[in-house]
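User: Can you write out an input/output pair for a complex, sequences first and structure second?

Assistant: Here is one pair. Inputs:
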Amino acid sequence: MKVSKKILYPALSLFLITLVSVILLALINAFTKDKIKDANRSNEDKQRIAVFPDAESFREKENYTECLDGDKNIIGYIFVTKGAGYSGDITVMTGIDKDGVISGVKVLEHTETPTFGGVAVENNFTDEYKGKEAQTFVKGQNIDGWTGATKTTNGVIEAVNLAVGSFETVAKGGADNG
Amino acid sequence: MAKNNFGEFTKGIIKENPVLVLLLGTCPTLAISSSALNSLGMGIAAAAVLICSNAVIAALKRVIPDSVRIPAYITVIASFVSIVQMLIKAYVPALDKSLGIFLPLIVVNCIILGRAEMFASKNKILPSILDGAGMGLGFTLAITFMGIVREILGSGTVFGFDVTKGKVEPIGIFAITAGGFFVYGILIALVNKIAKRPNQSPGCAACPMAAACHGGAKKEVE
């Protein structure tokens, strides 16, 4: 009697509480799952349109996204790459059209200091890439920095250069196949 | 009795404000309060969890054995946090993005476990809900006020609207956590002044939680 009271009862009550919690969570998960997926999806598409406004739809590939026009022809590519910023990685989305002109660059995620690197991101400092030819960017030569956000701009340049590198591989691969 | 219940609600706002007087939940307060809107979102999310967990824990207080009460409380709290997280992800994805890791970390917000242990485990359901609502409101007000102060000083905006932006150079340090400590310390001093708490702490009598913990004479487990 004593053992059952001291060990069995606490174990049983904890088990029941956990069981009820799990059932409740499973129900709510089933209820919100699709909604969360939709929210993430529309969010992704919105960002893709921001870096590649001409695209009608997108097709995800293994490590890049193809931008399609109304007739499903490939008109460009979107790459998501990372560069080292002042405090952690900066994730950057780069859109490059099939002729090798950058259609847009957008910072997706960063952990930079809000008042320095964060200000640069908010002011869309990445707009200066728009319309430039896809090439290896070097600060001071073919791209400007943002005052107060040296490391942040360096990180973005690193990420954009990675995207340009991927673009060259993908575009060349496409030509070989075609 | 009704008056008493009302007291349970109002005490969390100034007299026993969880952040500024009890000094609980400091981590989310400092981390999130760099902008007013995020602070408000964090406050409401934590208050919702607090009210629900207080209600359930008060309802189950006779069923939960003392020896496993902490894991039982954590299970209840973690479930509500997961529910809130899923709902926010589904319906307010922008808030989920700005709160980031601090949303699931509501689980370890000391205010919630603190109120479960200090209040809900010893009181009826209705007072516990009111206590949760009052404490939640106190937390929301404190963190939002900090958010407003830090956003004005650090970025020149309030809730994203320009206030002094462009007219006064923002003081960058207030947007980072170190600046949060400045604002936090000054706010605590201010609330102590308003609540007229004694400068020295002559033992338990000066503690705002004295009524709840009976001067450390709380019954021992086992």
